[in-house]
Design goal:
alpha+beta; 257 residues; D-amino Acid Aminotransferase, Chain A, domain 2; 2 domains
Length: 257
Amino acid sequence: MFEGERVYGGEVFKLREHTQRLLDSGAALGFEIPYSLERLERATLETVAAQGYADAYVRPVAWRGSEMMGVSAQQTTIHVAIAVWEWPSYFSPEARNRGIKLKTAKWRRPAPDTAPVHAKAAGLYMICTMSKHEAEAEGYDDALMLDWRGLVAESTGANIFLAREGRLHTPVPDCFLDGITRQTVIGLARARGIEVIERAIRPEELPGADEIFVTGTAAEVTPVGCIDDHHFQVGSISRALLEDYEALVRTKADVAA
């Protein structure tokens, strides 16, 4: 399994939450990472400092070794690596300004009783990679994933929000990650007095949205300009929360510095 973390002004945003999720993902996959939360945090900060990038992306990865060949892997060694590189934006600035284009994927997020859906496990992203490749081949920026029931779930690497009549609606994260950025943006919206409703969302509801955006550590807050044949404006709520998120991560970086 793995994590994705952002560095702003030399500081890792919400490092504690990401590190805890890495440990939790290991537990969900049936193995214990042989380092404490504090040691993993220290290693992350040391790696970020050694690279010297002001703004960057961090990818901790944990995996089983090769001591056993087969389905059973209980006697394998658990390895951890941390990589850091410069990465200014997940989507191009042009795509973010106009709103990214999503295509509904044919693959669906699995049911909670068929996979460890709340772990950030690499194997769960296979269908996301396939879906994104297919969408990009048809001129889209990303894919919209439905869940096993046919309800709106997320994009391939970010949670999704719909704005209607001044309220935000977002799917209940019962078969996908309750993203750390998702939780942050919900807090920012409520601080603005915007009601946030977590509920089941049907695909046929999408055309009725006033605006749509996605959130994630890599994607940050990114407006959506179209889903399949349905087009949306990059509206005031999306822009406000994008600005609030940018201000939050930069303020925390400035305070830490």
